[in-house]
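hey
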């Protein structure tokens, strides 16, 4: 069964999310030293306000 992507802290990723005007539908490593991350909360414009590092699972890639 499908399991949504989560952060290392077991928080569900909010997908898609926007970061500095770019929309992401999966984890990104932008501005995080090559480590993939996702939004865990977004504002009214879908921009990331909370985030976490993604788990290395197929749901996150």
């Amino acid at each position: 069964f499908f399991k949504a992507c989560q952060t290392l802290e077991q928080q569900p990723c909010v997908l898609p999310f926007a970061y500095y005007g770019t929309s992401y539908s999966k984890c990104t490593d932008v501005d995080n030293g090559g480590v993939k991350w996702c939004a865990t909360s977004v504002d009214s414009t879908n921009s990331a306000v909370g985030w976490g590092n993604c788990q290395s699972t197929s749901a996150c890639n």
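The mean pLDDT is 94. The CA atoms of residues 36 and 56 lie 9 Å apart.
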